[in-house]
Amino acid sequence: MKERLILAATAVVLCTPAAVFAQQPAAGTAPGATTGPAPATTTAPAAPATPPATDKPESSTPEILKPKRFRFSTFSVTNSATSTILGIGRDNIGYEDEAYNLDFSLNPAWWFIDEKMHKVFINASLAISTELTDSGGTTTEREPQFQDVQVGLGYNYSLFTSEDGEWISRLFVRSRAIFPTSEISQAQGRYLTTALGTSLLQNIKLLGNSADGLNNLTLIGGVTWSHLFSRATTPTDPDLERPRQTAAGRTFLSDQLTFNAFDRDRIVTGITGILPIYKDLSFNTSWRLISRFRDSFEGNDCEIVVAGQCQQADRLDDGVTYLTNSSVDFGITQGIYDLIYVTIGYNNETLTLGEDGKNRNIFYSPGAIFYADVSVQLDQIYQKASESSSASRNPFVQASTDPQTTVAGTNMPSF
């Protein structure tokens, strides 16, 4: 249990969703709503980082093919739906802000330095999303949309491990590049988003590893800075050429998609908690504050002509270039033979302040979503397939042949 939860926590840090670093919502996304349930943040444990000692001869499998080298490599399928489409929350006027999405994501990882104190890995994320409801951002019904591709490099350092292994402290450092492979990012003129973050993991002993549940509490606190490189300060499309009119009544062609500036930088602070409830069933929660730093519009010396003279328009001295989003996520994760992890959860992201200047409800907004995620651990599947076919090493065979587990449900997962 201890190894699974610590590795699950590592996976949470490794798989920070790209939506956190996104600068603009996808077309058809409700304002302030998250573009997805962050499936990668669901706890998806993998094989232990250090295999237990054994007297058996070492495997002849080449080191490059050993499962521990590509642990945390997952394939996930996520279904998500806004709360309003399920009849929860306010009644919308129309249904343009309601959505049901189906997402597929492949998240390979490779640990090329895997020592006791130091670990270094590279990882990537490739995803496809399809809106099953009526989408305002695609030209055809249920059109698959490729998401931005992510490539990352990470470092883990073991700060402290108690003799009984019940108390663990680890340091994580992550860097990431997000490439504009999605149609929306390309149309908006994005070039690249970079991200750099650090976090601390602390494992706190509760009832201990020998208990069936409430073994320990895992907390992860961290901060990430991301920066956007783009063609302009606002989303633009050179192929648009939309006629617009100046303050003086002169018509010109514009490639500007919106009057809102990009978030040039973002600083994301957050904390994640993982608590085992019973055996492979765990409760997970994440809280984030997303600080958004927008570009300011500098203008020019001849924005308007008055009486034949060029003039520059006045500007507010306290123009808003900084705002924040608040995000909260709750999930229940069930592991099945360390191969598949199923998560049912709720996620809400919204502007921290409303139009009235008061704090918004962090737990609910019209864009809040419920999601169901199924994550397959590719390293574990490979390990099971490459092992001997002996029944003593096959959990599925054990479930059907062990005389002590013939009672229905006895050898099934904890649900």
CATH topology: Porin
Total domain modules: 1
What does the main sheet amount to? 12 strands, antiparallel, barrel
Distance between termini?
A: 16 Å
What proportion of the residues is helical, as a percent range?
Answer: under 10%
Strand order of the largest sheet: 1-2-4-6-7-8-9-12-13-16-17-18
**Total strand count, please?**
18
Mean pLDDT: 78
Which structural class should the secondary elements be placed in? Answer: mainly beta
**What is the N-to-C order of secondary-structure elements (H for helix, E for strand)?**
HEEEEEEEHEEEEEEEEEEEHH
Oligomer: single chain
CA radius of gyration is: 25 Å
The CATH architecture name reads Beta Barrel
Task: Give a description of the structure.
With 415 residues, the protein is mostly beta strands. The protein has one domain (2-246, 254-296, 322-405): monomeric porin ompg (Porin), CATH 2.40.160.40. The chain has 4 helices and 18 strands. It has helices at 2-14, 183-188, 378-386, 395-401, and strands at 74-82, 100-107, 109-114, 118-131, 145-146, 149-161, 168-179, 190-205, 216-230, 242-245, 251-254, 263-278, 281-294, 304-306, 309-311, 322-336, 340-351, 369-377. A 12-stranded antiparallel beta barrel has the order 1-2-4-6-7-8-9-12-13-16-17-18. Strands 10-11 form a two-stranded antiparallel sheet. A hairpin with a 6-residue loop joins strand 6 (149-161) and strand 7 (168-179). The protein is elongated and about 85 Å long. It starts with a helix and ends in a 14-residue tail after the last helix.
